[in-house]
Amino acid sequence: MTDPHADPHPNPQADPQTDPPADPHPDTRPDPLDTALRLVRAQAAVAKRFDASLGGLHGVSLSDFTLLLHLGHAPGGRMRRVDLAEALGLTASGVTRGLAPLERIGLVSREAAARDARVAYAALTPTGRERLTEMLYTARKVADDLFADDQWSPDDLGRLAVLLTRLGGTAPDQRPGAATTRD
User: Is this model's pTM higher than 0.70 or not?
Assistant: First the structure.
């Protein structure tokens, strides 16, 4: 039986691995739920790749790395715990749970504010800063593999970055909604 929606003149140049099939109904809107679920699956696959490399080489998860990266971008390498929680999209207790193992292995320290004992800072230690530099090298290699030049054009990456930002995805040193500029 033949598919009535199949293209009678398929593109011989199309690569089924990388080129999506032509939409037989180009005027219909893609299913938002399907799109959202694809994004969730893609995020899980990306996180798995980062976790494997960062865990295998540095003993940290992607979550640990992201937390350290936020601290690394903060002035003085330290942030109030509540600000760190907001930046990561976590609760204060979630940040405390995330920081505890990093404190135990000496990558992060807890600092009290000089003027207000109720305020606590998380700060990168010198060891934490050194290890973060090593982790950044590994993370960049993973990202380069994920977005290899033979699979992704600069335009593809630019469009993806814009679309992810529209969904609230920002770089660790940027706040959601903040304007970004590139020099």
Answer: yes
